[in-house]
Amino acid sequence: MTASASSKKRSKNTSSQRGHDRRHLSYSQQEQIIPELAPQVSQRYMINEAFYANFLCYFTSDGEGKDIQNKMTWLHRLPYLSSDGTNTALTMALQATASAFCGVETANIAVVRDACNLYGRALNMHARILSSNPKEVTVHMVSTSVVLSLFEAMQATTADAYREHINGAAKMLEVTGPGQCMEGVLCQLFFHIRTQMAFVYLTTEKAQPLSVRKILTESLLYRRLPVFQRLMSHIATLAEIYVNKTSANSKQQLISLSIYQSVRADVDSLWLEYKESASEREENLFWNTSSGKTEFRDGFTALCIAYFSAARILFSVLAPRLAATYPEFEDHFGRILACADFLQSKKIGCAYMRMATPLYLVTLHSPIGRQRSKAMRIFEDWKKGSMAGISALALDTIQKRQDHPLTLDDSAWPEELVLAQKSYENLPLEMFRFEDWVGQV
User: Fold this and answer.
1) Which of 281, 193, 197 is nearest to 236 (CA)?
2) pLDDT exceeds 50 at position 21
3) Tens digits of residue pLDDT in 147-203
4) Which one of 158, 272, 318, 363 has the minimum C-beta count within 10 Å?
5) Residue 308: how many CB atoms within 10 A of its CB?
6) First-last CA distance in the chain
7) pTM
8) In this structure, which long-range contacts are made by residues 130-134, counting pairs with CB atoms below 8 Å and at least 24 apart in sequence?
């Protein structure tokens, strides 16, 4: 080998090693960005790795890509986004949330205290970045709000903080340009955000108007709307009606017959579309094993079915006599619990929090005591671990609801019920034109 060739080889190896070092240090670059952080880089790296491996890596549910249509996942992009030096708030928010997770899981008070300190600094940085250029929203900023919401889901600091982070991330998406989507990263984030907005609205009764259609078609550039997003639009509408009808100050206890029929028909049509899509692939959405357990095609399918069941429950709660005119043969409360069992067995970490809305409805409205108790136990188990914040929100609201039970009565229109029955029998679902009902969450 000539001296020149040897020199070139050494240069290439050195360059390669530098590239490897840069990748290896991607998690510890925060020490250069924010020098006052914890002195031991190795400890910070280990905390981040544990957080990714045991909690955040489950942000993606198996099977979701077929419906959400994302080519890239948030998990794959987050290490780069949090270490590229362009947004120190995201860097610190990730460190805070990782520390909170590890502190809770290991019952290490010192690590939890450090996490709370980092969280406060991340909040201040995030606020400064947002105020410096309010018209320019990047995927980093949306990611920061989502990460901060995960912190609140673990370690609630105030009653409203979780809601504010979730709603803040959603409002950012309204003004985020399509160039920030990063091959579907924002599509995945919006899917997560909408599940949490529904839960937050049901438990806090605080609405957040949102231009869902604008986000889906302009920010995320969807041409074929995902089934789950269309379903969540109906859940949003039903949640709004539910809150209006069941709040302590509500004077209106009846759901509009026309609204009921329209939303009900759309959900039925969407469910039929979902089943037929699986049939075309020769796939079963779910099945019962010889031991009596229910298995699902994948984790995302279980989540979708849980939300379809949640919609059915809301129908029956909002208009019990009207619901009786639509024959039901499924135990939707039991189906939700079966979905929860399936997801829990897969140890899906943070993705499990998306079951909060269906489980919340089971605790309040199942007619079977053991089903209500089982859903309550799930929230209580969350409270002992890394989802203490979100479970506390659920349990507190459940307690208030149980202390002040409300009854909905739709027995006022026997003639309309008869007409509804005839209308349902005579009009096939195909006659109802589907619209993406945005609603307000």
Assistant:
1) 197
2) no
3) 999 999 988 888 789 999 999 999 999 999 888 999 999 999 999 999 999 999 999
4) 158
5) 27
6) 69
7) 0.81
8) none
